[in-house]
Design goal:
Elements lengths: L1 H13 L2 H4 L4 H23 L4 H4 L11 H29 L11 H28 L1 H8 L18 H18 L3 H19 L8 H4 L7 H11 L10 H6 L6
GO biological process, one term: lipid biosynthetic process
Subcellular location: Membrane
Protein name: Cholesterol 25-hydroxylase-like protein
């Protein structure tokens, strides 16, 4: 039954195959999904100074997010997409044309491949992040811009320079190819990865947040990453907690 459901979704997507094959699609897909995921938290940031019920879930309750801060982050994100992500998408489109199979993947295969892509990205990001904090030149030159805001908010997710945007984007783009996943799974991975990244930076500890759904403290979530932006020297993994536990860099409060 699940297979038929996935096949129906995939068939519906393939009706727009000409759009999917366009060199403009990856960058439009990326910015549209990203801003769609940010929008609910932008609403919360706007309302939280006035509504105590919302503010109670804010991790740093004494901080506020101004429109100036949000516009600054949005402008840099749009600039990075236009100047770096779009040219790289065109090169990728030229060198490696996408092939779309008619058959959808099975549900268990989708879940397995999503987990594999996410765990691999989590490891790559951890190593990249650790190096860019432990090596002062790397931090000053490339990563410091992302730490402009010590209190996280959704639109600060992609507040980063060219090197950080391209290198982390490269990990996200190459992992589905390395693991040979179905194009549908690749789209789902990019959506899941963007959602988790935005949620990490949202600045809210909501009752339905991912870290509350994953048991045994295996997943850090927004509180985990908010501590990183405050302390700088802990919680380097973006999502899961096992690498920080192994390297002694986990800080839970």
């Amino acid at each position: 039954m699940a297979m038929f459901g996935l096949q129906y979704i995939w068939d519906s997507i393939l009706q727009y195959e000409a759009v999917l094959r366009s060199p403009y699609f990856p960058v439009l897909f990326s910015i549209t999904v990203y801003l769609s995921f940010c929008l609910p938290f932008v609403v919360l940031d706007t309302l939280s100074p006035k509504i105590a019920l919302i503010r109670r879930y804010k991790i740093q309750q004494k901080t506020t997010v101004s429109w100036k801060m949000m516009w600054s982050c949005l402008a840099l994100s749009l600039y990075n997409h236009a100047m770096y992500i779009f040219p790289m998408s065109v090169l990728h489109w030229y060198w490696r044309p996408v092939s779309y199979t008619a058959m959808a993947p099975g549900l268990l295969r989708v879940i397995w491949d999503l987990a594999a892509c996410l765990l691999l990205f989590d490891f790559q990001y951890f190593v990249w992040h650790l190096l860019h904090h432990k090596v002062p030149w790397l931090y000053r030159t490339f990563h410091k811009v992302h730490h402009k805001y010590t209190s996280t908010f959704a639109l600060a997710t992609e507040y980063s320079g060219a090197w950080e945007t391209l290198s982390l984007g490269f990990f996200a783009a190459v992992n589905p190819m390395l693991l040979g996943v179905h194009p549908m799974t690749e789209m789902l991975f990019h959506m899941l990865n963007m959602w988790l990244s935005v949620e990490d930076h949202c600045g809210y500890d909501l009752p339905w947040a991912t870290h509350r759904l994953v048991p045994f403290g295996l997943y850090g979530g927004a509180p985990h990453h908010d501590v990183h932006h405050q302390k700088f020297k802990s919680n380097y993994a973006p999502y899961f907690t096992h690498w920080d536990k192994l390297f002694g860099t986990l800080h839970s409060e």
